[in-house]
Amino acid sequence: MRLISKIFALFLITSFFHGCDVVEGPYIESNSGGPDTSNTKVRKVFLEDYTGHTCKNCPEAAVIAKQVADLYPKQVITLAVHAGFFANPEPQPPYDYDFRTPTGEAWDQFFGNSNAGNPNGMVDRMDYSNSDHIKGITAWGSLVSQRLQEPLEAYIVIDSDYNSDNRTANISVDTELFQDLTDPLKLVVLLTEDSIVKPQKDVDQQGNSITIYDYVHMHVLRAAINSTWGDELSASGGSTGTLFENDYSFTLDQEYRADQCHVVAFVYNDLTKEVLQAEYAPIQ
Amino acid sequence: MKTLFTSLAILAFSATCFAQNSPVPSADIKTLDGKTVNTSSFENDGKPYVISFWATWCKPCIRELTAIAENYEDWQEETGMKLIAVSIDDARNSRKVMPFINGMGWDYEVYLDANQDFKRKMNVNGVPHTFLVDGNNKIVWSHNSYAAGDEYHLYELIEKLSNGESIDE
Amino acid sequence: MNNLRKKVLGGLFLFSSSFAFAQNPGQISGNFQVDFQVYQPDSLIGAEEVPEGLLMNGFANVNYTRDEFSAGLRYESYLNPMLGFDTRYKGSGITYRYASYDNGFIKATIGNFYDQFGSGLLLRAYEERNLGYDNAFDGFHIAVNPGKGVRLKALIGKQRAFFDYSNGIVRGFDGEWVLNEGLKSMETSATTVIVGGSFVSKFQADQDPFYKLPENVAAGSGRLNIIRGGFDFFTEYAYKINDPSAANGFIYKPGEALLVTASYSRKGMGIILGAKRIDNMDFRSDRTATGNVLLINYLPALTKQHTYTIAAFYPYATQPNGELGVQGELFYTFKKGSFLGGKYGTKLSVNLSAAQSIERSPIHDTIAVGESGTLGYESEFLTPGETVYFRDFNFTLTKKFSKKWKGSFMYMNQSYNKAVIEGKPGFLKNQILVAEAQYKINTRHSIRMEAQGLFMEDDANPDNVDFGSWALGLVEYTVAPHYFVAVQDLYNYGNPDKTRRIHYFLASAGYVKGSSRIALNYGKQRAGIFCVGGICREVPASSGLSVSITSSF
Predict the structure, then answer these.
(1) Fewest CB atoms within 10 A around its CB: which of A62, A161, C109, C158?
(2) In this structure, how many other beta carbons lie within 10 angstroms of the beta carbon of residue A38?
(3) Facing A19 at nearest CB: one of C201, C213, C252
(4) Is residue C106 over pLDDT 70?
């Protein structure tokens, strides 16, 4: 009996010493970002931000997405998916505009993002198989930095040839494997638009809800160039060096501004829904 | 999937062979003055007793315990029974249990199962859930939910037990 | 995965049947619940089409006990999760399994377990199946009773979130001592004194590129309970070191919580007063988690938990980032034969509760209150902030008029800061009246009726009116001990949008046999917040037929 008490006391004392990490300021990391990777084939992470124009906490998510993308230039492919309750247009201005897309709604239904409460997102759609795929916005930074350390599995090259007369782009997406893979692979190609100025709910210092009338929306998902779940590249993976070439022709809607549009492409494992690689390029 | 449900069904069936007349399971719960007791020590001098799971926020529970309270003296006199009221109130309400019980004027033996260990051991889905225990500390009957008049049915069963008859339902 | 499940269950079945022939076969027991709803789209109430048409939640527990040994598992299935439940529950699996040995002196559990230290300010793992909440640990738990009124507990584990476990690891220790059982001088004392203390620490790796984060976050608490006669005094204080998280906006301020309650009661009357102060006490095993996920501690709301339908429309939820709360409640019985007691006695309860923000001032001229990556703010311990979160004054009278008639009446006056509690703009002021009557036809048949009204104070700002006023009528007919039927009309007569002044009809029926219960509901259900215990979930409007089956064995 005494012995047990002693063991407990010992446990208590040791846990006190090991259980405390009091951080002294400054609390912000001073970092200069990753190395310049513009000329090497490296992993690029697909960061999805599930958002809505009447979600007052969502602008904060966009800020974090930008911080993460700035930290790892050209290695983070951001997509703003407007879907679910907070993306529903209201009958009256200012929130009468509609950024929803059938693709975004279908993903939101499938992955359950808006149901879990906006804002949130996914990083390469990791952990879908164990229900842990919806990632809080404050987790994005560490998840992206960890993910970038994993070896390259595939690399995507997008080439877009845009004809402004008929507003049509001929897009080729080449996917090269850098690992021997066995699971089915799919490719999704999307259209995004930047710098759309439309009202957005936000919060002030006191936490009250306010409307930012000239809010600049970035990386807005506009359409699926192929389809919501994409085209199958291979039903059984492929060996290192395998190259998949996919060509698409896509006509821009009148309201989309070609100089602000990007093609986003990502390859994913159809069994786990995990994204292996992503890429983006201007449509022009 | 089918195999799963078959196994569950078989398990449930084989379990019913055992569950009848099982003893009160062991779990630690607290008295109103903060002391810990084990439920396997529940007893009533060889007379039947009732274990009722309830909460201060549960209206049907309060209706049931109020209805029993109106007859409690008579029932105790006639059969020597008693009622053990196990509150599943959590930290939000558990401190209210003592003033509540006193305010209602109930004379039950009351325990707090704030961590719901006893509730889990007794496989209670929701409150109210009432168990009847015979003089040998075996659970012989249980009933989930409360409708006005349920207390008379309960008392019929208590009378049967105290007359040495068995309950076959 | 499926194969694994089959093997586990097959093994368990063999295991259990083999015991049937042994000398002491032990006991198998368990329970299950299946709920499903067939959804109909209804544009009027805003019930959207459900592509699956039918959604189902179900679970079954199976426990085995033999002498000092027990083991069990729970299988859960959500195909697909019903509306209002987190869709991350989609799927099926064994979510809870444990084995435990208990010889009275020592109890060891491996696998999943629930536990609570003190009042839960530091640690509470529990489940509310009907709300889809479960933060069970998976790990190792040990409890020791060395005697003399001392109880010690230690645990280590990861917490459950849906079908997965947290990244963070939680370690905890708790000790409690009933002085009367340990000290000779106290043995015969009429005063019971109980002291206790806990220590909890969580580990989560720091891979964040922006912040320098503490990987080990520790918290400690102490508690004291003094009981003498009808008096009961309880207090618990908890302190947590810097724990920047998504929930507190990544501030590095330490957190603290204080809870004090005092009650006095004697037969026929009870009174309780409580107060609490919470400052930056959101404590989770994953610093990036938001919503009702991976909470390590439990901060109880110091407000009355209402159960009449309309009185529960706007429930309060504790604000873990900061709150001052007070509550007082009286329970009183007017004796039989007294003026107010009448022939059978009259019961009265009165409750007053209030929750308010804490005072917050900047730590420096250049740093805004709550700015991330700083100490956040400074707060005077006892100075209340300016924002009203919640107010509730209510009383209930319950009276038996004759052998056949019983009645209750409740009045409630409520202020509800929707912006703080729900995160949607608005501040609501409601008056609520409830009248309930029960008529006993004979010993088996009875009728119960409820009339309820919620009268919302008018306001020029539409945010402050929400859905406006409501009325509810309910008639329930029960035949003990087996049947019940009920019809209910909930009428949103005061909705500011005149096209939405809708009747929500709902018919229910049920059959109860022993510990089994089948209930059916058909009709419309409003969108709203449903709460049990300390947590709530938002449920969208729905229309259709729902069935709930529960049983235990």
Answers:
(1) A161
(2) 9
(3) C201
(4) yes
